[in-house]
Amino acid sequence: MSRKTSILDKEIADLLKKVREESGLSQAAVAERIGLSLKSGKGYISHLEKGWIKNPPIGTILLFLRACGASWVEFFKELDAIDFKMRHEKMIVQVQPAPTKRKIESALGGSIKKKSPSPLYSPIQGEEGKKK
């Protein structure tokens, strides 16, 4: 099953999974510590770790971290560092200059020949040579 996740949801999910794995707990154990039923709780934790829960509530994140014995301060510091890195990388991509014709030709192994542009419309018969 393919579900769309935002980049931030995915980063939160990956970080939560990392925290749980570092704590040595299973998804079922985290669900139980949070107070969720075993049957639906494990599925909820799985969805949370896959980023399928959009904008997970802060209370849920805090319960998850507490269940894993993790510091919420450290979690959000790491999340902030990831967010900063993503924004920085996006800015770098945005300021990269466009490739020059020479670079494109070099990559293609040949020259780019300029074609005459196609008209957007066909002139009316008898109007071909007239200028406005």
Automatic annotation (TrEMBL):
A molecular function (GO) term: DNA binding
The UniProt record lists the HTH cro/C1-type domain at 16-75
Q: Which Pfam families match?
A: HTH_3
Q: Where is this region: Disordered?
A: 107-132
CDD domains given in the database record: HTH_XRE
**Which superkingdom?**
Bacteria
SUPFAM superfamilies xrefs: lambda repressor-like DNA-binding domains (SSF47413)
What InterPro entries does this protein's entry cite?
Cro/C1-type_HTH, Lambda_DNA-bd_dom_sf
> In its UniProt entry, what is this protein called?
XRE family transcriptional regulator
Q: What is the lineage of its organism?
A: Bacteria, Bacteria division WOR-3
